[in-house]
Predict the 3D structure of the following.
Amino acid sequence: DAGVIQSPRHEVTEMGQEVTLRCKPISGHDYLFWYRQTMMRGLELLIYFNNNVPIDDSGMPEDRFSAKMPNASFSTLKIQPSEPRDSAVYFCASSQTVSGKKAFFGQGTRLTVV
Amino acid sequence: QQQVKQSPQSLIVQKGGISIINCAYENTAFDYFPWYQQFPGKGPALLIAIRPDVSEKKEGRFTISFNKSAKQFSLHIMDSQPGDSATYFCAASGAGGYNKLIFGAGTRLAVHP
């Protein structure tokens, strides 16, 4: 298995633009997590899905952030409009249990908003 | 109550030495305590994990020690090697409303040759 695949690896965008991050979880995993990593706040869970359904989005910072999972093999995290403080590394992870046991992370998307 | 406090923030160890990273939690609903290892430019990868029904788990040079009464757990890396240089995160999760994986702030480990 190729593992969790995220795209793009790097994204540089101007403030106010829409940004879409993509994730392909490991086949057969029924949980998908989106995390954000910054020096100041560490690894923060933004949202997670079970069987394509959003279960907990309490970590989503603002209404500018939205996430979807239209099917078992694809998820997106969208920021509209983007702001410089959104600059971070965004990770997608997948697992077969809700507590993230043996959660597998993608390589992340480094987002820079200028 | 959902916090996991990790220390130290950074650690320098000589090759062959023992690296020790500590974590503490408050929420007694947590029942799963993994450690993740992250190299620069990579995502975190599960290293080793423990449940509170045991006090220690060892996998190769990596050992988790767990103290349920003190609500603390630690990672010991024996015979530390330069290749172990990475950022280490402890985490915790539980059941019910605490089933999210909560991460500590991370420890940047540097093992000098």
The interface with chain B takes residues 4, 33, 42-43, 45, 48, 56, 91, 93, 98-108 of chain A (CB under 8 Å).
